[in-house]
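tl;dr need the bound structure. longer version: we got a ligand (zinc ion) that a collaborator sent over and nobodys looked at where it sits. i said id run it. heres the input, straight from their email, havent touched it
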Amino acid sequence: MARQPYQDAARQKAAALAASGHARILAIETSCDETACAIVQDGRHILSNQIYSQIDVHRVYGGVVPEIASRAHLEKIDVVLDETLAQAHCSLDEIDAVAVTHGPGLVGALLVGVSYAKALAYGLSKPLIAVNHIQGHIAANYLTYPELSPPFLCLVVSGGHSHLFRVQEGGHYTLIGCTQDDAAGEAFDKAARQLSLPYPGGPALDKLAETGDEHAYKLPIPSVEGAYDFSFSGPKTAFINLLHTHAQRGQTILPQDAAASFRKSVVDQLVMKTMRAMEDLGETRLAVAGGVAANSLLRRCLAAECADKGYALYLPQLALCGDNAAMIASAAYWPLMRGELAGMNLNAEPALRMSSYCTQS
Ligand code: KG4
Ligand code: ZN
Protein backbone atom coordinates (compact mmCIF):
# COMPACT_ATOMS: atom_id res chain seq x y z
CA MET A 1 0.00 0.00 0.00
CA ALA A 2 1.31 3.47 -0.89
CA ARG A 3 2.41 5.57 2.08
CA GLN A 4 -0.07 8.34 2.94
CA PRO A 5 1.36 11.80 3.04
CA TYR A 6 1.26 13.42 6.49
CA GLN A 7 -1.66 15.75 5.78
CA ASP A 8 -4.03 12.94 4.68
CA ALA A 9 -3.24 10.85 7.73
CA ALA A 10 -3.71 13.86 10.02
CA ARG A 11 -7.06 14.70 8.41
CA GLN A 12 -8.32 11.14 8.79
CA LYS A 13 -7.34 11.09 12.44
CA ALA A 14 -8.94 14.47 13.07
CA ALA A 15 -12.18 13.29 11.46
CA ALA A 16 -12.24 10.23 13.74
CA LEU A 17 -11.61 12.44 16.80
CA ALA A 18 -14.39 14.84 15.75
CA ALA A 19 -16.78 11.90 15.34
CA SER A 20 -15.98 10.71 18.87
CA GLY A 21 -15.93 14.21 20.40
CA HIS A 22 -12.89 13.18 22.43
CA ALA A 23 -9.27 14.29 22.13
CA ARG A 24 -6.20 14.24 24.30
CA ILE A 25 -4.20 17.23 23.15
CA LEU A 26 -0.55 17.91 23.85
CA ALA A 27 0.24 21.64 23.63
CA ILE A 28 3.43 23.66 23.50
CA GLU A 29 3.69 27.35 24.43
CA THR A 30 6.94 29.28 23.96
CA SER A 31 5.73 32.75 22.92
CA CYS A 32 7.68 34.70 25.54
CA ASP A 33 9.63 33.65 28.63
CA GLU A 34 7.84 30.48 29.72
CA THR A 35 8.68 27.09 28.24
CA ALA A 36 5.40 25.30 28.76
CA CYS A 37 3.89 21.98 27.83
CA ALA A 38 0.56 20.45 28.84
CA ILE A 39 -1.86 17.63 28.10
CA VAL A 40 -5.59 18.38 28.25
CA GLN A 41 -8.52 16.02 27.73
CA ASP A 42 -11.48 17.28 25.65
CA GLY A 43 -10.48 20.93 26.07
CA ARG A 44 -11.56 20.93 29.72
CA HIS A 45 -9.54 18.60 31.93
CA ILE A 46 -5.86 19.11 32.65
CA LEU A 47 -3.89 15.85 32.78
CA SER A 48 -0.59 17.66 33.19
CA ASN A 49 0.65 21.22 33.01
CA GLN A 50 4.39 21.95 33.21
CA ILE A 51 5.99 25.38 33.06
CA TYR A 52 9.64 26.22 33.14
CA SER A 53 9.75 29.93 33.93
CA GLN A 54 12.76 31.91 32.70
CA ILE A 55 12.16 34.74 35.18
CA ASP A 56 15.46 34.12 36.98
CA VAL A 57 17.36 34.15 33.68
CA HIS A 58 15.95 37.53 32.62
CA ARG A 59 15.70 39.27 36.01
CA VAL A 60 19.29 40.57 35.89
CA TYR A 61 18.44 42.43 32.68
CA GLY A 62 15.21 43.91 34.09
CA GLY A 63 13.11 42.40 31.26
CA VAL A 64 12.93 39.64 28.67
CA VAL A 65 15.96 39.41 26.35
CA PRO A 66 14.58 37.78 23.17
CA GLU A 67 17.74 35.89 22.14
CA ILE A 68 18.22 34.49 25.63
CA ALA A 69 14.55 33.45 25.73
CA SER A 70 14.86 31.47 22.46
CA ARG A 71 17.99 29.70 23.66
CA ALA A 72 16.45 28.85 27.03
CA HIS A 73 13.36 27.39 25.28
CA LEU A 74 15.65 25.25 23.14
CA GLU A 75 17.56 24.02 26.17
CA LYS A 76 14.46 23.20 28.25
CA ILE A 77 11.78 22.01 25.88
CA ASP A 78 12.82 18.31 25.86
CA VAL A 79 12.84 18.17 29.66
CA VAL A 80 9.52 20.00 29.97
CA LEU A 81 7.91 17.59 27.47
CA ASP A 82 9.25 14.52 29.34
CA GLU A 83 7.93 15.89 32.65
CA THR A 84 4.55 16.61 31.06
CA LEU A 85 4.21 13.05 29.75
CA ALA A 86 5.36 11.58 33.07
CA GLN A 87 2.89 13.67 35.08
CA ALA A 88 0.00 12.56 32.84
CA HIS A 89 1.21 8.91 32.91
CA CYS A 90 0.94 8.98 29.17
CA SER A 91 3.18 8.10 26.23
CA LEU A 92 3.49 10.08 22.99
CA ASP A 93 1.49 7.32 21.26
CA GLU A 94 -1.44 8.05 23.56
CA ILE A 95 -1.60 11.68 22.41
CA ASP A 96 -4.32 12.39 19.83
CA ALA A 97 -3.11 15.77 18.51
CA VAL A 98 -0.41 18.40 18.93
CA ALA A 99 -1.17 22.11 19.44
CA VAL A 100 1.18 25.06 19.48
CA THR A 101 1.09 28.83 19.95
CA HIS A 102 2.11 30.37 16.61
CA GLY A 103 1.67 34.03 17.63
CA PRO A 104 1.67 36.74 18.78
CA GLY A 105 4.97 36.82 20.65
CA LEU A 106 8.73 36.94 20.20
CA VAL A 107 9.62 35.48 16.82
CA GLY A 108 12.65 33.45 17.93
CA ALA A 109 10.82 32.11 20.98
CA LEU A 110 7.73 31.18 18.94
CA LEU A 111 9.89 29.44 16.34
CA VAL A 112 11.23 26.99 18.92
CA GLY A 113 7.72 25.85 19.85
CA VAL A 114 6.39 25.85 16.29
CA SER A 115 9.33 23.81 14.93
CA TYR A 116 9.16 21.39 17.84
CA ALA A 117 5.39 20.88 17.49
CA LYS A 118 5.65 20.38 13.74
CA ALA A 119 8.36 17.75 14.19
CA LEU A 120 6.29 15.98 16.86
CA ALA A 121 3.09 16.02 14.81
CA TYR A 122 4.90 14.82 11.69
CA GLY A 123 6.87 12.14 13.50
CA LEU A 124 3.74 10.83 15.25
CA SER A 125 1.53 11.38 12.19
CA LYS A 126 -1.00 13.26 14.34
CA PRO A 127 -3.08 16.40 13.63
CA LEU A 128 -1.43 19.77 14.30
CA ILE A 129 -3.44 22.79 15.53
CA ALA A 130 -2.12 26.37 15.49
CA VAL A 131 -3.40 28.51 18.37
CA ASN A 132 -3.47 32.27 18.80
CA HIS A 133 -1.99 33.10 22.23
CA ILE A 134 -4.88 35.43 23.09
CA GLN A 135 -7.45 32.74 22.30
CA GLY A 136 -5.42 30.57 24.64
CA HIS A 137 -5.74 33.09 27.47
CA ILE A 138 -9.51 33.22 26.97
CA ALA A 139 -9.66 29.40 27.03
CA ALA A 140 -8.05 29.35 30.52
CA ASN A 141 -11.61 30.02 31.68
CA TYR A 142 -12.84 26.72 30.16
CA LEU A 143 -10.34 24.87 32.32
CA THR A 144 -11.34 26.67 35.51
CA TYR A 145 -15.06 26.43 34.72
CA PRO A 146 -15.68 23.22 32.72
CA GLU A 147 -19.38 24.16 32.35
CA LEU A 148 -18.64 27.56 30.73
CA SER A 149 -19.62 28.00 27.06
CA PRO A 150 -20.03 31.10 24.86
CA PRO A 151 -21.56 33.61 24.61
CA PHE A 152 -19.92 35.82 27.22
CA LEU A 153 -17.93 39.07 27.39
CA CYS A 154 -14.20 38.66 28.03
CA LEU A 155 -11.75 41.25 29.32
CA VAL A 156 -8.30 40.21 28.08
CA VAL A 157 -5.55 41.97 29.99
CA SER A 158 -1.93 40.87 29.57
CA GLY A 159 1.53 42.30 29.00
CA GLY A 160 0.74 43.03 25.37
CA HIS A 161 -3.08 43.26 25.22
CA SER A 162 -6.05 45.03 26.74
CA HIS A 163 -9.13 44.00 24.83
CA LEU A 164 -12.82 43.52 25.39
CA PHE A 165 -14.27 40.71 23.27
CA ARG A 166 -17.70 39.25 22.93
CA VAL A 167 -16.94 35.53 22.69
CA GLN A 168 -19.41 33.66 20.50
CA GLU A 169 -20.06 30.06 19.49
CA GLY A 170 -17.87 28.48 16.81
CA GLY A 171 -14.64 30.34 17.54
CA HIS A 172 -16.02 33.78 16.64
CA TYR A 173 -15.23 36.98 18.50
CA THR A 174 -16.51 40.53 18.29
CA LEU A 175 -14.02 43.19 19.29
CA ILE A 176 -15.85 45.60 21.60
CA GLY A 177 -12.93 47.76 22.73
CA CYS A 178 -9.16 47.84 23.06
CA THR A 179 -6.32 49.97 24.36
CA GLN A 180 -5.34 52.98 22.30
CA ASP A 181 -1.76 52.85 23.54
CA ASP A 182 -0.09 50.73 26.25
CA ALA A 183 -1.48 47.43 27.51
CA ALA A 184 -2.49 47.27 31.17
CA GLY A 185 0.31 44.79 32.02
CA GLU A 186 2.86 46.92 30.19
CA ALA A 187 1.74 49.97 32.23
CA PHE A 188 2.06 47.99 35.47
CA ASP A 189 5.54 46.81 34.46
CA LYS A 190 6.71 50.33 33.56
CA ALA A 191 5.31 51.84 36.78
CA ALA A 192 6.97 49.05 38.78
CA ARG A 193 10.30 49.83 37.14
CA GLN A 194 9.97 53.45 38.28
CA LEU A 195 9.61 52.12 41.82
CA SER A 196 12.73 49.93 41.32
CA LEU A 197 10.65 46.79 41.83
CA PRO A 198 12.10 43.55 40.47
CA TYR A 199 11.02 42.06 37.16
CA PRO A 200 8.29 41.02 36.51
CA GLY A 201 6.91 44.29 37.80
CA GLY A 202 3.14 43.68 37.70
CA PRO A 203 2.96 41.06 40.48
CA ALA A 204 5.53 42.97 42.59
CA LEU A 205 3.56 46.23 42.29
CA ASP A 206 0.34 44.40 43.13
CA LYS A 207 1.92 42.94 46.28
CA LEU A 208 3.37 46.28 47.39
CA ALA A 209 0.06 48.06 46.69
CA GLU A 210 -1.71 45.78 49.16
CA THR A 211 0.11 47.61 51.96
CA GLY A 212 -0.44 51.17 50.66
CA ASP A 213 -3.07 53.91 50.68
CA GLU A 214 -4.76 53.97 47.26
CA HIS A 215 -6.17 57.45 47.90
CA ALA A 216 -2.74 58.99 48.60
CA TYR A 217 -2.33 60.31 45.04
CA LYS A 218 -4.99 60.97 42.44
CA LEU A 219 -4.05 59.87 38.92
CA PRO A 220 -6.21 60.82 35.94
CA ILE A 221 -8.62 58.50 34.18
CA PRO A 222 -8.09 59.54 30.56
CA SER A 223 -10.97 60.28 28.23
CA VAL A 224 -10.83 57.99 25.21
CA GLU A 225 -12.97 58.30 22.10
CA GLY A 226 -14.38 54.76 21.98
CA ALA A 227 -16.87 54.07 24.79
CA TYR A 228 -15.17 50.78 25.65
CA ASP A 229 -11.57 51.64 24.70
CA PHE A 230 -8.74 51.99 27.19
CA SER A 231 -5.66 54.18 27.53
CA PHE A 232 -2.88 53.61 30.04
CA SER A 233 -0.14 55.81 28.70
CA GLY A 234 -1.62 58.98 30.34
CA PRO A 235 -1.81 57.51 33.87
CA LYS A 236 1.68 56.05 33.40
CA THR A 237 3.13 59.45 32.41
CA ALA A 238 1.24 61.15 35.28
CA PHE A 239 2.72 58.55 37.64
CA ILE A 240 6.27 59.14 36.38
CA ASN A 241 5.77 62.93 36.70
CA LEU A 242 4.46 62.48 40.23
CA LEU A 243 7.61 60.59 41.26
CA HIS A 244 9.93 63.07 39.51
CA THR A 245 8.21 66.14 40.97
CA HIS A 246 8.51 64.74 44.48
CA ALA A 247 12.16 63.83 43.91
CA GLN A 248 12.96 67.32 42.55
CA ARG A 249 11.34 68.95 45.57
CA GLY A 250 13.18 66.61 47.91
CA GLN A 251 9.86 65.24 49.15
CA THR A 252 9.58 61.60 50.08
CA ILE A 253 6.89 59.46 48.59
CA LEU A 254 5.91 56.17 50.13
CA PRO A 255 6.38 53.52 47.42
CA GLN A 256 3.44 51.48 48.72
CA ASP A 257 1.13 54.53 48.48
CA ALA A 258 2.38 55.30 44.97
CA ALA A 259 1.88 51.65 43.95
CA ALA A 260 -1.62 51.52 45.45
CA SER A 261 -2.65 54.80 43.79
CA PHE A 262 -1.37 53.68 40.38
CA ARG A 263 -2.99 50.25 40.67
CA LYS A 264 -6.30 51.91 41.55
CA SER A 265 -6.16 54.20 38.49
CA VAL A 266 -5.57 51.24 36.12
CA VAL A 267 -8.15 48.99 37.77
CA ASP A 268 -10.79 51.75 38.00
CA GLN A 269 -10.54 52.28 34.26
CA LEU A 270 -10.69 48.56 33.44
CA VAL A 271 -13.69 48.03 35.70
CA MET A 272 -15.54 51.16 34.57
CA LYS A 273 -15.26 50.37 30.84
CA THR A 274 -16.01 46.68 31.30
CA MET A 275 -19.11 47.33 33.38
CA ARG A 276 -20.28 49.95 30.89
CA ALA A 277 -19.95 47.40 28.07
CA MET A 278 -21.77 44.74 30.10
CA GLU A 279 -24.67 47.06 30.74
CA ASP A 280 -24.91 48.64 27.26
CA LEU A 281 -24.69 45.29 25.47
CA GLY A 282 -27.04 43.51 27.82
CA GLU A 283 -24.44 40.89 28.78
CA THR A 284 -24.84 38.90 31.98
CA ARG A 285 -21.65 36.80 31.97
CA LEU A 286 -18.13 38.22 32.24
CA ALA A 287 -14.84 36.33 31.96
CA VAL A 288 -11.35 37.74 32.52
CA ALA A 289 -8.13 36.49 30.92
CA GLY A 290 -4.38 37.17 30.73
CA GLY A 291 -1.61 37.81 33.23
CA VAL A 292 -3.29 40.90 34.72
CA ALA A 293 -6.34 38.74 35.58
CA ALA A 294 -4.17 37.74 38.57
CA ASN A 295 -4.27 41.31 39.92
CA SER A 296 -5.82 41.17 43.37
CA LEU A 297 -7.59 44.54 43.20
CA LEU A 298 -9.03 43.82 39.75
CA ARG A 299 -10.39 40.48 41.00
CA ARG A 300 -11.91 42.08 44.11
CA CYS A 301 -13.47 45.03 42.26
CA LEU A 302 -14.95 42.90 39.48
CA ALA A 303 -16.30 40.44 42.04
CA ALA A 304 -17.98 43.28 43.96
CA GLU A 305 -19.42 44.94 40.83
CA CYS A 306 -20.69 41.68 39.34
CA ALA A 307 -22.27 40.63 42.64
CA ASP A 308 -23.95 44.02 42.81
CA LYS A 309 -25.33 43.78 39.25
CA GLY A 310 -26.17 40.07 39.39
CA TYR A 311 -23.66 39.15 36.66
CA ALA A 312 -21.85 35.80 36.59
CA LEU A 313 -18.08 36.36 36.87
CA TYR A 314 -15.46 33.88 35.64
CA LEU A 315 -11.90 34.41 36.87
CA PRO A 316 -9.26 31.86 35.84
CA GLN A 317 -7.47 30.20 38.74
CA LEU A 318 -4.26 32.11 39.47
CA ALA A 319 -1.99 29.41 38.04
CA LEU A 320 -3.78 29.72 34.67
CA CYS A 321 -3.74 33.55 34.37
CA GLY A 322 -0.13 33.80 33.18
CA ASP A 323 1.32 31.99 30.20
CA ASN A 324 0.85 28.22 30.24
CA ALA A 325 0.28 25.46 27.69
CA ALA A 326 -2.91 24.02 29.23
CA MET A 327 -4.83 27.04 27.93
CA ILE A 328 -3.36 26.42 24.45
CA ALA A 329 -4.44 22.76 24.54
CA SER A 330 -7.91 23.83 25.63
CA ALA A 331 -8.22 26.44 22.87
CA ALA A 332 -7.09 23.84 20.30
CA TYR A 333 -9.93 21.42 21.05
CA TRP A 334 -12.63 23.31 19.11
CA PRO A 335 -10.62 23.95 15.90
CA LEU A 336 -9.61 20.27 16.02
CA MET A 337 -13.27 19.25 16.24
CA ARG A 338 -14.01 21.55 13.27
CA GLY A 339 -11.12 20.00 11.28
CA GLU A 340 -9.14 23.26 11.18
CA LEU A 341 -5.64 21.82 10.99
CA ALA A 342 -2.25 23.43 10.42
CA GLY A 343 0.16 22.04 7.86
CA MET A 344 3.91 21.60 7.79
CA ASN A 345 4.15 25.12 6.34
CA LEU A 346 3.05 26.60 9.70
CA ASN A 347 5.25 29.53 10.66
CA ALA A 348 5.68 31.75 13.71
CA GLU A 349 3.64 34.94 13.40
CA PRO A 350 5.01 37.45 15.93
CA ALA A 351 2.36 40.09 15.11
CA LEU A 352 -0.59 37.69 14.75
CA ARG A 353 -3.83 39.52 15.45
CA MET A 354 -7.24 38.32 16.55
CA SER A 355 -8.86 40.10 13.60
CA SER A 356 -9.13 36.95 11.45
CA TYR A 357 -11.60 35.51 13.98
CA CYS A 358 -13.25 38.85 14.71
CA THR A 359 -16.20 40.80 13.50
CA GLN A 360 -16.15 44.51 14.39
CA SER A 361 -18.86 45.64 16.78
O1 KG4 B 1 -0.45 36.91 29.95
P1 KG4 B 1 0.94 37.17 30.40
O2 KG4 B 1 1.57 36.16 31.30
O3 KG4 B 1 1.88 37.39 29.18
C1 KG4 B 1 1.46 38.07 28.06
O4 KG4 B 1 0.81 37.43 27.19
O5 KG4 B 1 1.73 39.28 27.99
O6 KG4 B 1 0.90 38.58 31.13
C2 KG4 B 1 2.04 39.11 31.69
C3 KG4 B 1 1.68 40.46 32.23
C4 KG4 B 1 2.90 41.21 32.72
O7 KG4 B 1 2.80 42.55 32.27
C5 KG4 B 1 2.77 41.11 34.22
O8 KG4 B 1 3.40 42.16 34.91
C6 KG4 B 1 1.28 41.15 34.38
O9 KG4 B 1 0.79 40.33 33.35
N1 KG4 B 1 0.84 40.64 35.69
C7 KG4 B 1 0.24 41.41 36.62
C8 KG4 B 1 0.02 40.57 37.74
N2 KG4 B 1 0.48 39.33 37.45
C9 KG4 B 1 0.98 39.39 36.17
N3 KG4 B 1 -0.11 42.70 36.60
C10 KG4 B 1 -0.71 43.20 37.70
N4 KG4 B 1 -0.95 42.46 38.82
C11 KG4 B 1 -0.61 41.16 38.87
N5 KG4 B 1 -0.86 40.45 39.98
ZN1 ZN C 1 0.20 35.71 27.64
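gonna send this back to them w/ a short note. The chain has a mean pLDDT of 95.
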